[in-house]
Amino acid sequence: MKKQYAIIGLGRFGNSVALTLVNAGHEVLAIDADEDRVQRIADCVTHAVVADSTEENTLKSLGIRNFDIVIVAIGQNVQASVLTTLLLKELGVNYVVAKADNSLHGKMLEKVGADKVVFPERDMGQRIAHNLMSTNVIDYLEVAPDLGIIEVDVPQELLNVRLLDTNLRADYGITVLAIRRNGKMTLSPNPGERFLPDDKLILVGEGSGIQRFEEKYF
Ligand code: ADP
User: Fold this and answer.
1) How many CB atoms lie within 10 A of CB 56?
2) Per CATH, the architecture of 134-217 is what?
3) What number is the ipTM of this complex?
4) How far away, in angstroms, is 59 Cα from ligand 1 center?
5) Whose alpha carbon is nearest atom 18 of ligand 1?
6) Which part of the chain is CATH 3.40.50.720?
7) Is there a contact between 203 and 152 (Cβ–Cβ < 8 Å)?
8) pTM of the model
């Protein structure tokens, strides 16, 4: 279903979020205090306005509370980011996503009522670091504190082994969410499934378990 989004702050992150949502067919209002930034995106989004999001009346006059989701993509100016998030929640916005540059910033955003706090730089750093530590790691995503999803090439040692014989759960606390084979994804594979060459495994587990798994197999 088509949703209405407002993005406040048109830096690299805000721009990327706004354009992705537009490409997916959603309505996007883009807001920034900087006129150049607003002009640059104006042709690509539904509406674009120059406004200071720390002014309550400005937010009201934009009808901000009618948007399904508002994304606060102000990173460096922590004060503006926190104040904006607070005002949005006070004005009754249903769902506010706020970007944090560090954990203290994240805590403040949670305190003032952000429904979701995202850490794009930290997440991307983790993904790239996991990918660099082992060429067999295709992707890594932290889904909750100390809970990660990782995509890896099937380890050599597990070739032709049945899932139920791998002991991944007992030894590493790891569950196989899916197998990607010839571009096709099999969710919750059967315990009797054997791993084949070129399989990609999508695993979920605690960070420490995933780390031990990587050390053992790669
Ligand atoms: P990124 O790291 O994603 O590039 P930045 O923190 O550099 O993000 O960019 C944040 C954007 O938010 C800037 O374009 C800035 O003009 C905008 N911004 C900062 N404070 C406000 C505010 N009070 N109202 C509206 N936009 C703001």
Assistant:
1) 15
2) 2-Layer Sandwich (3.30)
3) 0.94
4) 16
5) 9
6) 4-129
7) yes
8) 0.79
